[in-house]
Design a protein that fits this description.
Layout: E1 35-38, E2 46-48, E3 54-57, E4 66-70, E5 75-80, E6 110-117, E7 123-131, E8 136-143, E9 150-158, E10 168-170, E11 176-180, E12 185-190, E13 194-197, E14 206-211, E15 217-222, E16 227-232, E17 240-244, E18 248-254, E19 261-267, E20 279-285, E21 292-298, E22 307-313, E23 316-321, E24 326-331
Antiparallel strand pairs: 1-24, 2-3, 3-4, 4-5, 6-7, 7-8, 8-9, 10-11, 11-12, 12-13, 14-15, 15-16, 16-17, 18-19, 19-20, 20-21, 22-23, 23-24
Length: 334
């Protein structure tokens, strides 16, 4: 099969709104220009495997799994957990990890936020926010040298008591950073130091997370307060800018060239919640000027209850959701 290179690149001048499309579709039928990959439980987040035709999707509800998604074939295959998962603990890199995920978790297993750090020779590192018998960041080797990427579990970092993790990004130094909506802050982990709160992240209402290529800036999606926070990392004095978005951002994804960030999330959120009235939204954000452009807005769709992540794959915009069983994709305009 011919291999494709899918780049997360889109013009920041795009303005795309499908608000006039029908709000409800029958099971996995197209809704206007939006099509779906069916029977994928709660694909809350995506990670693109570089220079391949594959995407990894999380599964954040009962029965959810880490899924390997073929882009041209529009098919999804569960790859973790399985009856006999590949496991190889790297005790030097993850010295406090007690061992692999307990196979008795069953449907208590949840894969939430994802982040893939590209490696050399098509062998990469995948970080997964895990809920189950333990609250943790689980780490996998992704070997993309074969016909399809293969996942091997290699380690973990169990979260401190009281944290409830959501999103994760890798740092240039080899550690990672994760959000904790439960405590309202952001935490960083390194093998030699363990966990520590990121200075200045308190009260950021965190959900999704991104990081600049040089590791100097964090971008924090403040879901409940409809904002994005740009926060300096490892700098004194701390530099912090808060940007209103006009919808509740969930996950953040940097474009391949670092020129903008995709923010996906929910609009028309009211208390008490009525998710059938909430909209899916995507905006692009310039990480330096913080210019915001809303490129997508759409009413609720059955089995796709509000977008939580957005990426561009080739000439398509792909959307994930927490409340649903489908991955959505649609054409990107020129």
């Amino acid at each position: 099969m011919k291999r494709f290179r899918f780049l997360l690149v889109v013009s920041a001048t795009v303005a795309f709104c499908l608000g006039a499309a029908p709000p409800v579709g029958a099971a996995c039928d197209d809704v206007g220009e939006i099509s779906f990959i069916c029977d994928v439980i709660s694909p809350e987040d995506f990670a693109v495997v570089p220079a391949t035709e594959w995407i990894i999707a999380s599964g954040d509800r009962a029965g959810g799994r880490i899924q390997l998604v073929n882009v041209p074939g529009k098919t999804a295959t569960p790859v973790f957990p399985t009856a006999m998962p590949a496991e190889r603990l790297d005790a030097a890199a993850y010295p406090t990890c007690p061992g692999p995920i307990d196979p008795r978790e069953g449907d208590e297993f949840r894969a939430h936020g994802l982040y893939l750090r590209p490696g050399s020779s098509s062998v990469h590192t995948l970080y997964v926010v895990h809920h189950g018998f333990r609250e943790s960041i689980e780490v996998f080797e992704v070997d993309a040298r074969g016909a399809a990427p293969a996942l091997t579990w290699v380690g973990c970092a169990v979260a401190p008591e009281g944290l409830g993790l959501n999103a994760v990004v890798a740092t240039p130094e080899g550690g990672f950073v994760a959000t904790s909506p439960r405590t309202g802050d952001v935490w960083e982990w390194h093998a030699d130091m363990g966990w520590a709160r990121v200075p200045g992240s308190e009260h950021s209402a965190p959900n999704g997370l991104e990081i600049s290529a040089d590791g100097r800036w964090l971008y924090i999606a403040g879901w409940r307060e409809e904002k994005l926070t740009r926060l300096s990392r490892g700098r004194t004095p701390i530099q912090k800018v808060v940007l209103p978005l006009g919808f509740r951002p969930d996950n953040l994804r940097m474009s391949a060239d670092g020129s903008f960030i995709f923010a996906a999330g929910h609009g028309n959120v009211r208390e008490p919640r009525n998710t059938a009235e909430e909209t899916s939204n995507v905006a692009t954000i310039d990480p330096w000027t913080l210019d915001v452009r809303r490129i997508f807005e759409h009413p609720h769709i059955d089995d796709f209850g509000g977008s939580t992540t957005a990426i561009q794959v080739g000439d398509e915009l792909w959307l994930g959701t927490y409340r649903g069983r489908m991955i959505a994709y649609l054409p990107m305009p020129d």
